[in-house]
Structure formats: C-alpha cells, structure tokens
TrEMBL record:
Enzyme's top EC category: lyase
Coiled coil stretches, renumbered: none
Molecular function terms from GO: lyase activity
EC number: 4.4.1.8
CDD domains the UniProt entry points to: CGS_like
Family, similarity comment: Belongs to the trans-sulfuration enzymes family.
Catalysed conversion reaction: L,L-cystathionine + H2O = L-homocysteine + pyruvate + NH4(+)
UniProt xrefs under NCBIfam families: cysta_beta_ly_B (TIGR01324), PRK05967.1 (NF004626)
Needed co-factor(s): pyridoxal 5'-phosphate
Upper classification of the organism: Bacteria, Pseudomonadati, Pseudomonadota, Alphaproteobacteria, Hyphomicrobiales
Keywords of this entry: Lyase, Pyridoxal phosphate
Annotated SUPFAM superfamilies: PLP-dependent transferases
Protein name stated in the entry: Cystathionine beta-lyase
Length: 396
C-alpha cells in the first residue's frame, strides 16, 4: 500500500480501476469504503463550527463514500474535481446551468441525447438562453456559428442513437478562441476509451447509470472539470442542493472495479455482431463508429481507444407502410434482448429509435433504426436471437 500513490498513475487501466479512489488502510484495512450516510456532521467546538474549518461539514457537501467515488473519477478523467448528481440527465443539465446566464447563446450537437435537447428547448429557452444545434460532422467550420454571446458548446461523441463522431479537438479549439466553455457528454466511451480533458474539453459528463453501474440498477451522474472551470461547477452544485447518494456512490465505485474487463467484452461482442450484421441482407446500414465503413470512423480511430457495446442498425424496409410493423415484429421476436431504455448493464437490450426531433443530422431513410446494447451473454446466443428477429421481420 505504501507506494500506491506513486505507482498508480503509471499503472495499467485494470490495475488503476482496482485501486483508485480509496485506500483500505484509511479504514481498518476493509477492502471497500464504509457507506457513510449523513445529513448532520458534528463540529468539535463553536469556533470550528463558525469557520467550517473541517473536511466534512454537511451531508450535501459530501461524505467519505461519495469522495471515494469522486476521487476515482478524477483519477480516470484527469480532472481537478468531480461532482456527483442523482442521474446522468442531471449531470448534463447541471453542467449547462453552471456556465450559462440569461442572454447567452449555446451551441449543442444535433445528435445529442434526446432529453438533453428537451432541457435546452424548454428550461434554457425559458431562462432566456438562445440555443442552436450544430451538425456533428461540422469540425472546424463550427467557427462560423459563434456569436459574441456564445458561452457554451456541448458535444456528445459519438452521438446518441446514430453514433456520429465529432472532431472534438477542432471544436474545442474554435470554442476557446471565442471564449466558450466546452462540455462533453462522454457516456458512450467512458474515460477508459476517451479522456475528453486531454482533447481540449473543459468539462466531462457521464451517466454513471450506464457502464460504471453495469447492472441496470443504479442511477447516477458525474461532472468532472479542469482546474479553470472547477470553482464554478462546485459552486453551482452546492447552490442547487444536489448530491449523489452514499449508497449509490458505493455501488458505482463497486461497478468501476470491473468496468475494464466488462467493457473489453462489450467492445468485442458488439463489434463482432455489428460486423456480422453488415453482411446480412435484412440490414441496410450499421451505425457503429469502429466499423471502417462508418463515415466518421477515422475520428474514432484517431482519438478513441475502444468502443462500448451500443450501436444501431437500419433494418431494410422499402415499403413505408411496413417500417414500423417490421421493426415491431423484429423486436417482439427477441428473447435474450430485453425491450428497455438505458444501457450499460450486463444484459442485452433493443429499442426502436425515434429521430423525429433531429434538425440537421437527419434519420436514415432506408428503414427503421434499431439500437442494440450488446450485453455479456455469449455471442452465438445473441446472434440466434437476432436471426429470430429477422425471420419475424421478413414475414411482415
Ligand atoms: C442515458 C444517458 C444519459 C442520462 O442518464 P440517466 O442516468 O438515465 O439520466 C445522458 N447522456 C447520455 C449520452 C445517455 O446515454
């Protein structure tokens, strides 16, 4: 244990995942941290109460359990500080709220997570913030979209459901030239496969609900900022009264320990199935950034270290009347793939994607877009399940 601090930064990713965030010698040698639940924290005397000169002061400001998770995330992200919030969506909305004010203009990628768009189109607009969406393939041409009042650029790569990559270094460079803060929803890659702050992003956002949880049973979000943008983030988080629960933090930290090996398996299985789907005659296109045929594959290859287990494919349906019936027949014939939202758990999921809210990055036209989360099951069984789906769709 003695040399952990000096050894860990240079260690392999699974070694780091096994040891970051908490040192067992801090708590009697127990391998995992205690779950400290708290509102009240007692002060030893009136003077320390007045000055709040104490590491822990109140439950909303963190406990040893939430700190263990936040420190682990800082180690993975290379961030100055991380705050925990009760869901991935809250991670996005709190991050945006930290850096906007009435009269500002924000640029949001058009392939953004749907509920993020809804927040921007409702609450942000009500607050008097102007919102524009940009083409995920824009690269350095984003420069033309900046206005004197542009304060925030939000990226999400790859984009939700259609998985377009974005040139993050080019977008970040343009944003910084115009004095805007760059936020990135990095849920898909996790910090194991992409570290946003190393590529010019200021604030990295995650739905820990997904791979860090890994078991479809916890909701949580993390927001991690570089040194320049950390004070504003921690201040906003405290002011809004948001906090991640200690029990949930414990579970997310537990999930992180195995996330590296789980992700390797998700990566491998999803890519194998995506490659297999490309050759199926029922499939018009596969939307997976690690496939060489995917339009923005070169960016994934340049910047990312891996791919997670979620991608989409376009089921061929030339007759517009049959788009939905074919998709429903496919989904209803699945047994191992559950029909459900979210992803990142051990089990496979399928969903018919709705892209009607897109403004620029339009939906594919060859048929319905079906998103698959490839879980930890055996590939042969998942392929057989998909075959059953195709048979049912072909019969429509
Ligand atoms: C799921 C998801 C979220 C929201 O996470 P919740 O914990 O379900 O609120 C945010 N961003 C992306 C990209 C997601 O996939």
């Amino acid at each position: 244990m003695k040399d952990l601090d000096s050894l860990l930064p240079g260690a392999g990713v699974n070694t780091r995942l096994s040891h970051i965030g908490y040192d067992p010698s801090d708590y009697h040698g127990f391998v995992n941290p205690p779950v400290v639940r708290a509102s009240t924290v007692l002060f030893p005397d009136a003077k320390s109460m007045e000055t709040r000169n104490k590491k822990y002061t109140y439950g909303t400001r963190g406990t040893p359990t939430t700190d263990a998770l936040a420190e682990a995330i800082n180690a993975l992200e290379g961030s100055a500080g991380t705050v925990l919030v009760p869901s991935g969506l809250a991670a996005v909305t709190v991050a945006i709220l930290a850096y906007v004010a009435a009269g500002d203009h924000v640029l949001i990628v058009d392939s953004v997570y749907g509920p993020t768009r809804h927040f921007c189109d409702t609450i942000l607009k009500r607050m008097g913030v102007e919102v524009d969406y940009f083409d995920p393939s824009i690269e350095a041409a984003i420069e033309t979209l900046f206005k004197p009042n542009t304060t925030v650029v939000l990226t999400e790569a790859p984009g939700s459901n259609t998985f377009e990559m974005q040139d993050i270094p080019a977008i970040a460079a343009a944003a910084h030239k115009h004095g805007a803060v760059v936020l990135m929803d990095n849920t898909w890659a996790t910090p194991l496969y992409f570290r946003p702050l190393d590529f010019g992003v200021d604030v990295s956002i995650h739905a820990s609900t997904k791979y860090p949880s890994g078991h479809s049973d916890i909701l949580m979000g993390t927001i991690s900022a570089n040194a320049e943008h950390w004070p504003r983030l921690i201040e906003t988080h405290g002011t809004l009264g948001l906090c991640g629960a200690p029990d949930d933090s414990y579970q997310i930290l537990r999930g992180l320990r195995t996330m590296g090996i789980r992700l390797e398996r998700h990566y491998e299985s999803a890519l194998a199935i995506a490659t297999w789907l490309e050759d199926r005659e029922e499939v018009a296109r596969v939307l997976h950034p690690a496939l060489p045929s995917f339009p923005s594959h070169h960016i994934w290859k340049r910047d990312f270290k891996g791919a997670s287990g979620i991608f989409s494919f376009v089921l061929k349906a030339s007759d517009p009347q049959k788009v939905k019936p074919k998709a429903h027949a496919f989904l209803d014939a699945l047994s191992y793939f559950g029909l459900g939202y979210s992803w990142g758990g051990y089990e496979s999921l399928a969903v018919l994607v709705n892209l009607s809210d897109r403004k620029i990055a339009k939906a594919p036209t060859e048929g319905p877009v079906i998103r698959l989360q490839i879980g930890l099951e055996d590939i042969v069984d998942l392929k057989a399940d998909i075959e059953r789906g195709f048979s049912a769709a072909n019969a429509v």
